[in-house]
Amino acid sequence: MRLVILGGGESGVGAALLGKNNGYDVFVSDKGKIKKKYKDVLIHNGIEWEEEQHTVSKILNADLVMKSPGIPDKTVLVKDIREKGILVVSEIEFASQFTDALIVGVTGSNGKTTTASLTHHILKQELEVGLAGNIGDSFAKQILEKNYPNYVLEISSFQLDDIVAFKPHIAIITNITPDHLDRYDYQFQNYIASKFRIAENQTQDDYLIYDADDDVIANHLKKHPVQSTLLPFSLTKTIENGAYIDQQNINITIDNNKIIMPTANLALEGKHNVKNAMAASTVAHLLKIRKQTIRESLENFQGVEHRLEHVVKINKVQYINDSKATNVNATYYALESMDSPTVWIVGGQDKGNNYEELFSFVNQKVKAVICLGVDNEKLISTFGNMVDTVVETESMSEAVKIAYKIAEPGDNVLLSPACASFDLFESYEDRGRQFKNAVRNL
Question: Residues annotated in the binding site for ATP, as ranges?
Answer without folding.
Answer: 108-114
